[in-house]
Amino acid sequence: MVSGPTVLSATATTVTVGWNTDENANSVVRFGEGSAGRIAREGATVEFTDAVTITENVISHQVTLTGLKPGTAYTYQIGSTDPSGNGETTSNPQTVYTLHEEDLAAPLILGGPAVIGRTDSRITVKWTTDEPSDSKLLFRRVGSADQPTEVVVPDNVIEHVVTLTNLLPSQSYEITVRSSDLVGNGPASASVTGATEAAADTKAPSFTGGPTVSADATQALISWTTDEPSDTRVEYGTTVALGLVANLATFSTNHSVTLTNLTPATQYYYRISSGDASGNIADSTSGSLVWTTLASADVTPPEKVTGVTSINGAYSVRLSWAANTDADLDVYVIERAIGAGGFAKIADQKVTTFTDQTVVTGTTYRYRLLAQDRSANRNLSVPSDTITVTPSLSDAPGAPTVFRHDTTVSARPILKVTNGTANLRPVAGHLFIVARDSALTQIVTTSSVPVSGPTTEWQLPFMLDHLAKYWWAVRAVDNAGFMSPFSDRTSFTVDTLAKKTAVQLAAFTATGAQSHITVAWRLAAASPEASFTLWRAAGENGEYERISGQVFTGGREFVFFDRAVVPGVEYRYRIGATETGSGRSVFFGPLVARVAAPEKVVLDQNTPNPFNPVTQIAYQVPWTADVRLVIFNSLGQEIRTLVNGPQSAGFYRVTWDGRTTAGGDAASGVYFARLVVTPREAGSRIAETRVIRMLLIK
């Protein structure tokens, strides 16, 4: 095992555990109620009552334990066996606590977002969250009215690094990052602006630190840093011929590789390299570097963790500490003791902030941290100084007060509270919760709403069920992310017939065009108090989702161009109308429309033509095919490939920036774009080719 086990997520009834191995292996987690006490050493005996086994052989392991009890300590141990039956390699017993109640809090963005790398067509963004969560980016050019493009990376991590591609040179982009945790809370959101370079990146990354080697008897950690995000590669061996390779394809400025199955007391030669997203490679080619493995296992522990501080809420405690500078540091181990009880591990992680969400108000807790290295022995430092805390209600905002409202409401009611009172820190927002039961366990939806005055209101973003009964409550959230107690729980019943709106439509149409669907509606009479949202469902049984980022208000006529459509798919559209004063809502529709699929292979003339230096090329693919679009010069030489891969039936548009594959500027003259569409279904059709002539003038 090269890292972990780590608790990726804990709720009231589930725990997700992750770890990494140096080769493909299965995943086993054994667990049972009760704390393992202090960190158990090898050979400790622990009773486990349950186990989860995943037979798929992987390097990155993730297992979720379900059916657990809220507010309960569990001891678990992970294990892995490779396909040849080698193993089982197991961890020491670990302790994890489930939450006392369901996790309803969105992740907090603790650092960033920041642009850490850029080329003429790429921007790399990094941010950190206080808990494992996914990564989503919305981006568009600064000043553009277009809908933002969305990029989603589903992996749940604390350190988020995402690269945007296919951008235009010398352009500024507004970028919004969003993260939701494993149970769907969120998203936490923040924004940053980044600009692409004017010219193609032809410069290799620079080594800014290292390489350093932390050697053990049978493994070694090699680390270095670069000035831009790039991949990680180490070639190594017992002779200058090297022969062995370890690499990581992910892009980062901090590089580290753990080499395993080494021979003790042996000299190894190695060479490092890092390649950026443009293919430029930095290589330590001046000569092989050398290290020697230890004759016996590394038993030197890391330095003691210092600078431990805490910030308290009523229901959680956030710890922070100074970064440890040991070269072979792996993780920080967080231990907790309840009252005068013994310490037990509750988490480990690489970042220097941790939030404990399993505390009980009025209970005294003691915390300490240990640094753990990456050696085969997984050496632990001596414990940090102990910090003692007792969370209390005065550490959190006071509960908000629910406004009185009708017990019968429209399908999209407006919920309103008087803001919670600030205690230690200002109130930043309120978390609204709507559920089907008074205990708020059957949650329908939640939303975090920023404070903008003495009261806060929120309208549900979708229609609730007619004649159904719902309960709702609100918690205040301070500017450090700590929550107040719940407001009073209040119920209402939805009656769409008793709560009609005065809004009437004179026309409502949805019309398919070549690459989009135009949705338009006109009011029978001006209704300045009304606002509108547009909703869409794909196919006959798809669920409706809101597709208009904006709320339409003012005037009598409205138009929306839906470009996020797939040719041949049938879409259903509805308009949601809400009266601002009463909060009453009604939906109009549905209407059905589709974009017709192309009937033949088409390569349109580029626009503009002549051009300097950028032009766009549109083409049509009538069936799923392998598509290749290549630029040739007047001598028939291939100078740039714009498209090379499978595509489904549809209408496409690509941009040629007037550059060659090597990144240089193409000269003035005549060029040809050739489109080759090869059906993926063998024997059904023959490949078709189309060619256009283009003129580049400088």
Question: What attributes characterize this protein structure?
Answer:
698 residues, mainly beta, Immunoglobulin-like, six-stranded antiparallel beta sheet
SSE diagram, text form:
Layout: E1 3-10, E2 15-33, E3 50-65, E4 73-80, E5 89-90, E6 94-97, E7 109-118, E8 123-141, E9 149-164, E10 172-179, E11 188-195, E12 207-215, E13 220-237, E14 244-259, E15 267-275, E16 281-283, E17 289-292, E18 309-312, E19 317-320, E20 329-338, E21 344-349, E22 353-356, E23 365-373, E24 387-389, E25 401-402, E26 408-409, E27 414-418, E28 427-435, E29 443-450, E30 455-459, E31 469-478, E32 490-494, E33 505-512, E34 517-523, E35 530-538, E36 545-546, E37 552-553, E38 557-562, E39 570-579, E40 585-594, E41 602-603, E42 615-621, E43 625-633, E44 638-647, E45 650-656, E46 669-679, E47 688-696
Parallel strand pairs: 26-32
Antiparallel strand pairs: 1-2, 2-3, 2-4, 4-5, 4-6, 7-8, 8-9, 8-10, 10-11, 12-13, 13-14, 13-15, 15-16, 15-17, 18-19, 19-22, 20-21, 20-23, 23-24, 25-27, 27-30, 28-29, 28-31, 31-32, 33-34, 34-38, 35-36, 35-37, 35-39, 39-40, 41-42, 42-45, 43-44, 43-46, 46-47
